[in-house]
Amino acid sequence: MVTGLASEEKVMKNCGTDEEVVQATRNWLEQAVIGLNLCPFAKSVHIKEQIRYVVSRATTTEELLQDLLAELELLAEANPEKIDTTLLIHPLVMQDFLDYNDFLDVADASLEELDLDGILQIASFHPHYQFEDTELDDIDNFTNRSPFPTLHLLREESIDKAVEAFPDAEEIYERNIKTLRELGHDGWKKLFL
What pTM was estimated for this model as a whole? Predict the structure, then answer.
């Protein structure tokens, strides 16, 4: 059993460099999120290069919270034409989905602390994402599965504009489930070959 610093070093080796982490995340975004049209709003900001990719090397929830606060403030102040959304990827902390899910309450509370509630919101992606009332390996969960734990910071205004342009936005979730059920586990794996 590997513990302490040796455990952190093992995780760091497994996740790769910041560039490799970002590339794996971009690949997931291009192949799954955009390629399968899981989020019809992602393609535009991707093409315009308005997505900020940030790799947090936090190894504790406290360090991750500090990185999150900094990124929320940066996004709130940034010109939306330059940075419309941020993917805060944190490969070294919150590997357990239940811990990650609990942290989302802390993340949402941070929006209120910064007076950004209603201006920004946080969406969640995780390699072991699991919706309530599903089995771990249900393909439905893969709609929110990313290579690494990731907090997606979004502008409410951008979401509102995207929803206006996509009249059936409430149907996205059901459509995504249908798409993944048709694709199946083998099809999902082939996306990344």
Answer: 0.91
Contact partners, residue 106, CB within 8 Å, separation at least 6? 61, 65
Phi then psi for residue 121, to 5 deg, are -140, 165
What is the Cα–Cα distance from 82 to 42, expressed in whole angstroms? 15
Count of CB atoms situated within 10 Å of the CB of 30: 14
Give the strand order in the sheet containing 51-55: 51-55, 85-89, 150-155, 120-125
Of 25, 23, 64, 20, give the one whose Cα is nearest residue 42.
25
Query: What secondary structure letter does DSSP report for 147?
Result: S
Among 101, 12, 128, smallest CA distance to 2 is for: 12
**What is the chain's alpha carbon radius of gyration, rounded to the nearest angstrom?**
17
Give the model confidence (pLDDT) of 164-192 as tens digits. 887 777 788 899 999 999 999 999 999 99
Q: How far apart are CA 2 and CA 91, in angstroms?
A: 18
